[in-house]
Design a protein that fits this description.
CATH class: Mainly Beta
Order of helices and strands: HEHEEEEEEEE
Distance between the termini: 62 Å
Strand order of the largest sheet: 2-3-4-5-6-7-8-9
Mean pLDDT: 80
Low-confidence stretches: 17-29
Oligomer: single chain
Structural class: alpha+beta
CATH architecture: Beta Barrel
CATH topology: Lipocalin
Shape: globular
Radius of gyration: 20 Å
Strand content: over 45%
Length: 141
């Protein structure tokens, strides 16, 4: 005799299984990932045509932001936080960060919150600065 499964029950089981898989996440798959604070602490670099930026995330939630280019070097400090999304990965939010490194010499740098999405690339955590332009902060230590 066949076991009768109610359609709604089967759908619910599939939905719960898919939801648990999404929440658990898989670190080996590329894309956005969820992290804890201690996993993200370290020094990162992003290279651009006009220079490079070094970002150090410290365990006390402070950061150091250094941008080096032909125009001028910029040094800035601030604080950061981790924001985890329910069905997605984590974001690192740099509070009051410099967001206008490429402006003309003598201009006042603009500041604002900078959101960096945490990704897995080839088993390494990287911070997406601009995914479309393929700009990522890559951990150097």
């Amino acid at each position: 005799m066949w076991l009768q499964v109610r359609p709604c029950s089967c759908f619910l089981q599939i939905f719960i299984f898919a939801l648990l898989g999404t929440i658990a996440g898989c670190r080996d798959e590329p894309g956005r990932v969820r992290v804890k604070q201690d996993e993200i602490v370290g020094v990162y670099e992003a290279k651009f045509q006009q220079g490079y930026e070094k970002l150090e995330l410290k365990s006390d939630h402070s950061y150091i932001q250094d941008f080096v280019s032909e125009n001028r070097p910029i040094h800035h400090t601030g604080s950061w936080e981790v924001k985890n999304h329910l069905l997605d990965g984590s974001d690192i939010i740099l509070l009051d960060a410099l967001v206008s490194e490429d402006e003309a010499i003598g201009s006042t740098p603009r500041r604002g919150d900078r959101i960096l999405n945490v990704h897995n690339r080839s088993g390494r955590l990287v911070l997406a600065l601009n995914e479309v332009a393929d700009w990522y902060f890559v951990r150097v230590n």
